[in-house]
Amino acid sequence: MKKLLIISLLCISTSAYTQNVVGSWKRVSSVMEYADGKADDLQKNMSRVYPCSKDIKYVFEKTGKHFMILPKGCEDIPNIPADWKMVGNQFNISQKAGKESMSTSYELSFSGNTMTMSHNYTDAEQVSKVKIKRIVLKYERL
């Protein structure tokens, strides 16, 4: 009986602290790291062009659907719905733009109300002369 109580309490406390991607988020940084050691915060660059981008909501539904809610002034930003799934700490997202399908896999981690997604680029993913090492996206739960 005592064992059952301990196991039950452990399961309840584990599920209470387990976090997942489902919900609404705000992106706070989007850092592109290059092979030469340089880095750019794409989120800061986007904020200069679209000040409204700080208010974009990134929604991940339990059904595996993902979309953005764009505030006024951000209507020009492409808002292409996507599908996502998670296995362990691997987060996969795919979307179709016209006839082209894109899929990316991220390593996902949580700390408090912050979610971090990171993707290491392969040689096959390189599309320019500037070699990209990885991208790290950080979101805060709304």
Q: Total number of helical segments?
A: 2
Helix coverage percent:
10-25%
Gyration radius, rounded: 18 Å
Alpha-carbon distance between the two ends: 41 Å
Proportion of β residues? over 45%
- Main sheet? 8 strands, antiparallel, barrel
Oligomer: single chain
Question: What global shape is seen?
Answer: globular
Number of strands: 9
What are the secondary-structure elements, in order, as H or E?
HEEHEEEEEEE
Give a short overview.
Helix content is 17%, strand content 47%. By secondary structure, the chain is of the alpha+beta class.
What can you tell me about this protein's structure?
The chain has two helices and nine strands, in the order αββαβββββββ. It has helices at residues 2-17, 42-49, and strands at 23-34, 39-41, 57-60, 65-69, 82-87, 90-97, 100-111, 114-120, 132-141. The protein has an eight-stranded antiparallel beta barrel with strand order 1-3-4-5-6-7-8-9. A hairpin with a 2-residue loop joins strand 5 and strand 6 (90-97).
Task: Provide keyphrases for this structure.
globular; 2 helices; 8-stranded antiparallel beta barrel; 142 residues; disordered N terminus; single chain; alpha+beta; 9 strands
Tell me the layout of helices and strands.
Layout: H1 2-17, E1 23-34, E2 39-41, H2 42-49, E3 57-60, E4 65-69, E5 82-87, E6 90-97, E7 100-111, E8 114-120, E9 132-141
Antiparallel strand pairs: 1-2, 1-3, 1-9, 3-4, 4-5, 5-6, 6-7, 7-8, 8-9
